[in-house]
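**Reference record**
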Amino acid sequence: MLSHSYAFSSVGEVHDVNVQLKWHHQFQFAGFYAAKELGYYRDANLNVTINARDQVLSGNAQFGVADTTLVMHRLKGLPVVALLASYKYSPLILVTRKSDNIINPIQLKNKRIMYQRNSDDSAILALFDKFNIKATDITHVDMLNPVQALENNQIDAYSGYITNQPFLHSEQGFKTNIINPANYGIDFIGDLTYTSEAYLATNYQQVIDFRRATIKGWQYALKNPEQVIDWIIHIYHSNKDKAQLLQEATASLSLFDPDLTKFGEIDPERLNHAVQLYKKLNKASKNSKLDGFNINSRLADKLAYWQVILLVLIVVLAVITMMFFIRKQVAVLAHQVYGLFSKSVLVEATHQYLIEQNILSYRTDKDDCFVFVSPAFCSKLGYSREELIGKARRMLYHPKFTSVNLVKITKSLEQWLPWSGEVMYQSKEGDCYWHRSQFDPIVKNDYLLGYSAIEYDISEKKHLEQSSIIDAITGLFNRFRIEQLIHYERIRSIRTHYPFSILILELNGLGILVEKEGQQVLDDFLLAMANIVNNEIRISDTAGRWSHDQILVVCPETSLEGVDILANKILKTIGKYKFDSCFFVKPKLLTGELQSKEEVAQLLKRIISQMA
């Protein structure tokens, strides 16, 4: 769906630069907007103009955005240099009609598929290659209005982004399936920001300053998405509304590295995967190389160059000094030089030790039992190395870690596929930890040796997420989250024509309870009521604390008759429960079903009016 240009200008004004995006203004490019609007570019003495895809730049762009196909162009000799990666994982998917039931890549044979050749197609080509789908096995369609083309049955599938395409269809009530290359072990980088060799050569410091400011902008944007969305709408006049941009931002979060201190890093190994793919598909010469493509390697080479120069100067000074001092002084100097090199060795050893002590990593055998655990991993979960070696990794999962996630991990491991996602552990002391994990199979000569993993602790982030939507007393969703679910279910009900009902448990007399028994008894009572409601409702229902004396249950695809049955079940269970000191609390259940085109406020008003 996306396109980009590789046009560059000759050196112009030092501080005036253009950034050419590969699509219209949307959250996909949030970091650039943040860096400009917050003054990060200005602080670096850069006057940056951000241009959307539909603007003609005529070769005036010094910086651009592209996907992994940039690798192919470099292999073919185009002098481009990748500066940073924004999306760590590619969001590219194939979208199909739900009615066609195309859910497996092998079903794409003999189908009409819309995608852009040589632009945003690396993950698609890798998927075709993995399932032996040749160019002659499909009918390629040029990219033009893909959403309408799919809904009008003009194509069978098209390439789009998981962050927005499925949502655009759902807004129209059109049901789709997706085929995600990532689910089949295809792990490419998403967007790459790049410049030209010529521009880098003549404006090196400017390029480095631009890179640094852009990364800083992204770090802000990912922490403050709503602020950036307001800019996208009001300053950059996006053709998307706020709901669409919020959905895109939320869907994008899993595609970024959770460790924002590492934002922008370009993984050489994943670049090499793309190199091998293009060579295998004869889209690049077998002898072509990617040398110099990754700015990170150039920075390392530059640092190494100055380190060599410094070392040479030290040696020359040492030789000159030895020529002018007596033998004893020479001996002392030699001892000092020896100490300097010994210190370097010590620093390197200390650095390696610090890595082992701070990186959460481990390896398992083919049965997924630990064969190596880093000291940091052991320390985090409170186990010794001896307690973990030889034990199954699943012993560390928290009891509340959902079975859905376990099934996904197990299926990936059984198929020798990489898996990345969030894992919930329980420490030896019973504490809960959330890690962002990347599992990779270790295969040699078509034999599975085991798995390796590197993880990041994201517990604080997860706890903040939970605290923002969970009521502290009942453990139910809070009003903010429940309101979101109500509005979502209302829209879904209108679109699908399924009934939608709400149930409110009114607890009269809580003030008397606090006065006579105290706050702790009230909290215990509310928790007991929340547990009763949670035990009686269906998996599809969601309960939340609506106010200090109300618990609200969202009941999708439920008629008024159905929600009344549920209300009677809850009241019956409450009646059996023994509240020794709470005889003065009188529970009352109110129900209501959404009427045609009724607003949420109207539905709630009708339900609450029953209390009169």
About this structure: Residues 92-184 form a domain with the D-Maltodextrin-Binding Protein; domain 2 fold (CATH 3.40.190.10). The longest helix spans residues 327-358.
